Amino acid sequence: MMEIRTPKTGKAKRVLEKRAPKLVETGRKTLILHGTKTSATVSSVLMELYRLKKGGAIKYSRRNENIRPFESGGETSLEFFSQKTDCSIFVYGSHTKKRPDNLVLGRMYDHQVYDLIEVGIENFKSLLSFSYDKKFAPHEGTKPFICFTGEGFENVPELKHLKEVLTDLFRGEVVDNLNLTGLDRAYVCSAISPTKVFLTHCALKLKRSGTIVPRMELVEVGPSMDLVIRRNRLPNESLMKEAMRTSKDKPKKKEKNVDQDAVRGKIGKIYMPDQKLDEMHLHDKSKGRKRERKESKLLNEETDSKKNKKSSE
Amino acid sequence: METETDQIYHLDVGNLLGFNPNHRFPSAPSSREELVKECLEESRKLVQAIANALFNFTSTETNDGPIVQLPPPTTKLPREKHVPRPKPPTKWEEFALKKGIQKRKKDKVVWDEQTDQFKRRHGYDRVNDDNDVPIIEAKATDEPGEDPFAKRLDEKKKRVGKQQKNRLQNLKAAEKAGALPSHVQLAATSLPISGTKSQPKKIGKDELGDVAGLAATSTASGGKFDKKLPGEKAPKKQGKHHKYLPVVAGRGAVNPEKEQTNNVLSKIFSKHSHEILNVGKAINMYNVKKEKKKSGRSDKSGRSDKSGRSDKLKPKKDITKKPANKAK
Description:
The complex is a heterodimer of chains A (313) and B (328).
Chain A: E1 2-5, H1 10-19, E2 30-34, H2 40-52, E3 57-63, H3 76-85, E4 89-94, E5 102-109, E6 112-125, E7 145-149, H4 152-155, H5 157-170, E8 177-179, E9 185-193, E10 196-207, E11 215-233, H6 237-244, E12 258-261, E13 265-268, H7 291-312
Chain B: E1 10-12, E2 17-20, H1 32-55, E3 59-61, E4 66-69, H2 91-99, E5 109-112, E6 117-120, H3 148-176, E7 185-188, H4 205-217, H5 256-272, H6 279-299, H7 301-313
Helix pairs in contact in B: 6-7
């Protein structure tokens, strides 16, 4: 017995439609979580990250003991939260003796864990410790510039992965039209060593220059930290293929076996199936069914009738 | 002199992303401030490069400022959800395709012949409303006892039921293909018990609590040491329930405890005896009857005839005969 359930209010319907898979996707929503134990650094990193991503992030304040992203069973809670909040990228902060000031950045595909990367935080400086002219403070929800510097991002596979994840994290909404007055922030990521990335958030100062293009200047405003790569998990091949697939990639299916000829027009080939000679049915050899017999019978009848006629005459 | 290759940046203007793959940070760390300065300077160059591209696009002026059309992003990032799957055609759509039936746009307002005005197609005061028909003429094929209005209602119900069933089948097919519409959910409901029409009643909170209490008291210690589930409230009366009967009886009443024990004893004995006569009861009945007879004769002579007659007419009860009903 199946029952059809539809939303009873227009609002509920609109929410469900927003969460449906789309052909062209806008940015990901972020889920920010705490682990069993968090240090002051981790808590402030999570809080500031939430503030930076205010429009598209959800922060959970409770501790989550049963989330262990790198273990096979520890992802079920994450997947449930992802489904509940419709978030496809998460930031999980924790602090243990073995991994102090730990941050796990992960992405989801269809609410299943797609890939993970674990970084440690060092030299954290909070937003409150920076002093600058408040005029240039970036507004909430503006689209940021993202800058990656360093050959490490190309050569080291873990850093390459981190680059991709950070792009996804900081990107915000994918828009068609951009208002040029709303450019006021930039994220700076530099690979200072094969295992370390320096990340900071800056405000933009647009200064008058001679040309249409203003001169850009960066002023450090936001949190700055060093990320030390710890562990990572790349997605498995099949999942990656499926996730990277876009609608344009799907090639148009070529009609098989059909050829266009100028003279003959549209031609195709017919392939005959195998003739299994040993399993073929021969004609029915039973007495009554012989065709010759039938024919001869008919002929006899005719001759008989003719004979009768003759005799009658 | 810096060569061109040193300066090539990978720019993704659609994402406002810039990547400089050629910069080498000094492995010997200079002071932190120097490092930060260097990073900021390199990034500044990147941002400038992106801005150069951005500001050179054709911009349209609006109230908020110049708006620029961003090119689509070039970095390939994984999707967050699967590509929406195409919905399989419904039964009707397949049929229409086969027969070549085209969809026709229907007007919201239709001309009504009877009232010579335009009426809406659906809703209040609609054209050809099924309920508004005052007279249904009888046809030769109609049976005499049939109600044509009820018949119409029945037919409508059937049509609606069929439509619902078809809709469910179409949605099931769509779900199988993974293309269920976003606002629809198919949920399995519990099957009704065969033969009954009603659905199993949902147990309320109080009932569940009672059942839990019952289960607890069925234990030897009366549920006193049972581990409680989170959220479970303490039972109303903990421990064993002892009901002690009063030893001293009230005026005229039989001693209940004595009576109870006597009953138990008699049951035990009766189980072992083969007599099914409840002797005590039989004697009581006889005595009562006798008394009635006596009172009937002595008190009212006028009425005694009746009672007497009735007495005589009634078949006499033989107490030696075993009564039909079993001993209690």
